[in-house]
Known about the structure:
By secondary structure, this protein is of the alpha/beta class. It folds into 2 domains: 30-260, Alpha/Beta hydrolase fold, catalytic domain (Rossmann fold); 283-495, no CATH class. The protein contains 15 helices and 11 strands. It has helices at residues 5-27, 72-80, 110-126, 142-153, 187-200, 236-250, 262-280, 295-312, 326-346, 356-377, 388-408, 416-436, 438-441, 444-469, 472-490, and strands spanning 32-39, 42-49, 55-61, 84-88, 100-101, 131-140, 157-163, 178-183, 209-210, 219-224, 494-495. The strands form 2 sheets. Strands 1-2-4-3-6-7-8-10-9 form a 9-stranded mixed sheet, with helices on both faces. It has a two-stranded parallel sheet with strand order 5-11. The radius of gyration is 24 Å and the shape is globular.
Amino acid sequence: MRVSPPRLLALLAGLLICAVAIWRLEDARAGLTITPLAVGSTPATVYRRTDGGKAPAVIIAHGFAGSRQLMEAYALTLARAGYVAVSFDFEGHGRNPTPMRGDVTRIDGTTQYLKREIGRVTDAALALPSVDGRVALLGHSMASDIIVRRALEDPRVAATVAVSIFSEAVTQTEPRNLLMIDGAWEPRLRADALQNARLADPAAREGETIGDPARGDGRRTVVAPDVEHVGVLYSPTALAEARSWLDAVFHRESAGPVAATGGWIALLLAGVVLLSWPLAALLPGGERPFPTLRRKTFLLATLIPAAVTPLALARVDTHFLPVLVADYLAVHLLLYGALALGILALSGVRIGRVAWLGALALAVYGVVVFGGAMDRYVASFMPTLARLPIIAAIAVGAVPYMLSDSLVTDNGRASWLRVLVARGAFLASLAAAVALDFQRLFFLILIIPLIVLFFVVFGLMGGFVGRRTMSPGAVGIGLGVILAWTLGVAFPMFSAG
């Protein structure tokens, strides 16, 4: 099959981009020994310098719906500085097979289980022959509160680094040597961090150190410029501040660049998306199955499901999966997609022939190629066996929804305005569902950015396949599988027991 010059250029550029990005990302691991560590059922990873002697351990904890990979920039930075960095997956997250337990709304519920888990990881880290008996805790978002509360109870913890902190447990003097790092685009969390600093000194300001970390009573707030809740995990400022703070606590000196891998990760993922365009041209071509939707049909199929779905499900019990709010989302997707497909069918719009090779290629590329890059460098994307039934259950809803989305967006051929209206309506329906039952569906708010990212990244890939195969069925099935997979590995597994 002849490939056009622009596609050939894109193929070469994509391969070059991916190769350079992978080289730089792997280079960040050079000189380090990275080994697995099992702490009971908790999977952990130990990062240490190959030529290093005994050193303090730093326990690194991720936030809600995160995993060890998401915190790797801190692990690499601290390991390269000579520390023994131990990162792990919380219960219910990543590859941890044990579900989260307890009441997530109560301090004496889930928080206690996660706090004990950090204690077990701390014990295991201190037992490593490369650790000198000293330890610090570092945690992001949800974990910031967990590590603060753990540090209050564990006298072995010499320092606490809380990234994107929100915790009501901070006191005037505890925890010892508290560094609080927030992104510049996290105004509410910045305010909370400054309030915690002012418990120790009412005149405290951002960027100012109170007390002396070498003495044990240090406290400091730091603002990482130009980043938000996720970007702060890759900010050179945040990484350097964490390293400097621990150096001050443990009387050490570190030099050299930090492992600011965020830019290379973004470049790698962009390269994978770019490659999908010329690769889609290798699929068999198809004929356009129907004309562009009339405006009335488009609006009916977009707005009616968005309005009806959250209202219809407001009082429906959807607790049937051992995953936080994923069961509701699966039903929401199913009803939304069924309503949209029904309206389109009444208007004479059909899915038509399914290009199964295109559906398979899209699903495999999204899950294996893009997902493999994600799993290696960003966040856990390869599920444990316990998650496979969850992915299948979500797919029952995700496939109909993505079939309807592929029809209303005309297989990726619709105008950007129509795409924004269609997907914005779906996001608005999720927001309405949260507003109607905030206590039950609060965690959906945290997943909405993931869905936006899905639309941007995988929506582009689906558009490439759709414009080549002219098969809404191929795009809908392929993207439905990817969406189910993405949500199935991201939502924390949960058991009320």
